[in-house]
Design brief:
The chain has 219 residues and is an alpha+beta fold. It has six helices and 14 strands. Helix 4 crosses helix 6. The protein binds fe (ii) ion.
Length: 219
């Protein structure tokens, strides 16, 4: 049987339908790999839809409320975004799928050279700093793709050009739609490769509840 890690590395994500709904997300994440605590908090965060007015400005809910969230990678404004992202259904709706796009294919189409020169920076300082970040950042044996229209912005001419081309290609790219609708439905996503987005939340689905954890590695 292929391991979870192999599946995620092969396809960019792995879906585990109705996986042990009685188990806590923290326990499950720890069984998959190394959960990351961002700051001092618990590695597991609960995500619920929220109206714009009820949310902190400069967050996805504060900007988009119940509308769809645009495609992004998580923590794109960090120098080293978390490698893997786990999302798990507590209360789900078929009407509110999570959408995925393979950013590696997309980046190849746009041009890795251009995107490796596309310098971006956070819109707001991260720990007092505005580090320069590439849309496509080759590493020794891997690469980090980062994309986010809210938290990062172009910081150079090549950044503007790369971002414009990436945005245009993204708008034409076919997405994969996965509804985490049944309790326990769990998806593990390669956050250095895949873009994800949330569909709009129609009325009646405001009770949607997902748990999220980041993982630095998978076993
Ligand atoms: Fe996200």
């Amino acid at each position: 049987m292929t391991s979870l890690r192999d599946q995620v590395l092969d396809r960019g994500f792995a879906l585990l339908p109705a996986l042990q709904p009685e188990r806590s997300a923290g326990e499950l994440a720890a069984s998959f790999g190394t959960p990351l605590s961002l700051g001092a908090g618990d590695p597991v965060h609960t995500l619920t839809p929220a109206a714009k007015e009820a949310s902190t400005p400069n967050t996805y809910s504060g900007l988009y409320g119940f509308q769809s969230f645009p495609f992004h990678t998580d923590m794109a404004h960090w120098r080293a975004p978390p490698r893997f992202l786990m999302l798990r259904c507590v209360v789900g709706f078929m009407e509110v799928p999570t959408m995925l796009i393979d950013g590696r294919d997309l980046a190849r189409r746009v041009g890795l050279d251009l995107l490796a020169r596309a310098i971006m920076r956070p819109r707001r300082p991260v720990q007092g700093k505005l580090p320069l970040l590439r849309v496509y950042q080759p590493l020794e044996e891997n690469a980090i793709l980062r994309w986010d229209e809210v938290f990062i912005q172009p910081a150079s001419k090549a950044g503007e050009e790369g971002a414009a081309q990436f945005r245009a290609a993204l708008g034409r790219w076919a997405e994969e739609s996965i509804a985490l609708a049944t309790p326990g439905d769990t998806i593990v996503i390669d956050n250095w490769r895949m873009l994800h987005a949330r569909a709009p939340v129609p009325s009646g689905c405001e009770g949607r509840k997902l748990e999220r954890a980041y993982l630095g590695s998978l076993h």
